[in-house]
Amino acid sequence: MPTTKTHRIALLFNANKIFDREVLAGVASYLSGNRIFWDLFLEEDFRLRLSGIEQWRGHGIIADFDDPAVAAALASCRVPVVAVGGSYEDAADYPPGVPYVATDNFQLVKLAYEHLIDSGLRKLALFSLPEAPENRWAQEREKAFRALLRGDRMEPEVFRGQCTRAPSWDAALERQVAWLRGLPKPVGVIAVTDARARQLMQACALAGIAVPEQVAVIGIDNDPMARMLTRIPMSSVIQNGQEIGRAAAQLLTRMLHGAQLRDTRILVPPAGINALASSRHEPARHPHVMRARHYIRQFACLGIKTGQVAEYVGISRSSLESHFRQELGHSVHDEILRIRLDAATAILETGDCKLADVARKCGFTSSHYMHSVFKRELGCSPRTYQARLGEAAGAGFNRDTPYITSASPPI
C-alpha cells in the first residue's frame, strides 16, 4: 500500500475526441510507470462538464484548454492546474500563469506538407474548419499552412467549409465537391482532422475524383474510428498525445510538491505519419490504370477479383493486366492484395482481434491465406506484426523529447 498522500486530481477532457483519449492514456502511463497513486475524477460518461467544477474539492487539475470555456472556468482556480491543448504562433495567446503542454501545430502541418511534397505533388490545399473560439487550434494550423506555402513561394488555398450537422449535411457535401472540382489536379490536401479528411474522401467518391491520383488526402489525429469509416485507407499525422499526457502529469506532480511552474510551455512534436493509400500519389499516365486503382482502393476489401475491375474500367482483363505491368510493374491482383494488406495492418493496430474476422473484413478468402500474404510481403505472421507494433508504440513515445519554448527548466 502507498505510504505517501493520495492526491485527488480532476481530468477535464472530452474522451470522444481521439486527442483527449490519447492524453488520458499518457496520464495513466505516467502514473503506473512511476507508481504514483492519484484518486482521479472524470465524468462518468467521460464527457467534459464544467457545471459545479468550482465546488470540487481536490488537489489539482489537468484540463483541455482548447475549449475556451474550460480556460474561463479555471481562471481563478485555487488548486494547481496544468493546461493541455494546441500550440500558438503568438505567445500572448497562451493562458497567462498556467503551465501548458501543447501539440505542436506547426510541426503537425509541416510533416503532412513535406509528405505530400515528397510524393511529387506541387499543388497543395488545406481543408479547415469555420473560424470559432473553440476552433482556435484549426486556425493555428491554417497559419502554419500559409507560412509554409509562402516560404516556398506558393499561393495558399484554404477551404473552411461549414460545420456538419444533419440538416446541412447535403449542402456541406455539395460545397466540398464544388471546391474539389475547382482545384488544379493533381493536388494534395491536408485536412486539419481525420474527421475532415474522411468527409473529403467521401466527397471525392461522390464526385468521381480519383484518390490519390487526382486528390491525395492526409488528415491529422491517426484516429482508428475515422479510418474504419473510409473505403480507401487514410493517411494521417500521428499526434504524440500520450507523450503530452505524460508531460502534463509530470508537471502536475512537481507542482503538488511545491514547484512554481507558471508560464512553463512544452511543445510536443508529432510522432510521425501513418502513410496509407489516400496519400500515396503515384502519377498514372494511363487513364485505365488510374480508374482501375480508384476502384480497387474502394472495393478491394469486398472480395473483388481482377475480372470485376476490368469490367468496371470497360476493357478486357488481358488489356488491363498489360497496362498494369507496363506502368506499375505488377499485376492487378497484386494491387488488390496490397490494399487488403494495408487494411489488415490498420485493423491489427487497433488492438486484439480474431484473425478470422480481420481476414473476412479485408477480403481475404481465409485467415490462412492472409497469414501467407503477411509472411510473403512483410516477413512475419499477423500476430508477430501486431506484437512489433506494440513494442514500437511503447518505445516510440519516449524517444521524442519535448522541446521547451520558455525559460522554465525542463521537466
UniProtKB/TrEMBL annotation:
The keyword Electron transport does not apply. Keywords: DNA-binding, Transcription, Transcription regulation. Residues 290-388 form the HTH araC/xylS-type domain. Pfam families: HTH_18, PBP1_XylR, Peripla_BP_3. One of its GO terms (molecular function) is transcription cis-regulatory region binding. It comes from the Bacteria. Gene3D superfamilies: 3.40.50.2300, Homeodomain-like (1.10.10.60). SUPFAM superfamilies: Homeodomain-like, Periplasmic binding protein-like I. This is Transcriptional regulator, AraC family. The lineage of its organism: Bacteria, Pseudomonadati, Pseudomonadota, Betaproteobacteria, Burkholderiales.
